[in-house]
Amino acid sequence: MALEGALKLKELAYMHAEGFAAGELKHGPIALIEDDLPVIVIMPSPKGSATLHAKLLSNIREIQTRGAVTIVIAEEGDDTVRPYADHLIEIPAVSTLLQPLLSTIPLQVFAAAVAQARGYDVDKPRNLAKSVTVE
């Protein structure tokens, strides 16, 4: 999902974005974090892997200590993340199999909003193959 969100920001808003797995934070991406950098975190359901959920909470804390702004997409009712999210986007609590589908919606809306704020036409992204553009 993170890769999809990063791709949408590139395609629509023409800005660099990077998606990566939670375990990769300390393998490069953390070096790029600085004051006021927006970082979007897709929080896994607390109904799934407790280890992965705890890892993401730890990552959010590390990101915040470096001054970044955290935008967290999390399941409704996941109160463990609330204290660590500068901005919280809640998605409905569904089966863990469906959560990735719901997580993509705020990412796509965010990319479209950023693109429009930058003055770009989201219906006609430049330099994309015909198979992915709106005609």
Automatic annotation (TrEMBL):
It is an enzyme of class 2 (transferase). GO terms for cellular component: cytosol. Pfam families: SIS (PF01380). Transmembrane segments: none annotated. Residues 1-125 form the SIS domain. Its EC number is 2.6.1.16. GO terms for biological process: fructose 6-phosphate metabolic process; protein N-linked glycosylation; UDP-N-acetylglucosamine metabolic process. InterPro entries: GlmS/FrlB_SIS (IPR035490), SIS_dom (IPR001347), SIS_dom_sf (IPR046348). Coiled coil: none annotated. It catalyses: D-fructose 6-phosphate + L-glutamine = D-glucosamine 6-phosphate + L-glutamate. One of its GO terms (molecular function) is carbohydrate derivative binding. This is Glutamine--fructose-6-phosphate aminotransferase [isomerizing]. It comes from Mycobacterium kansasii.
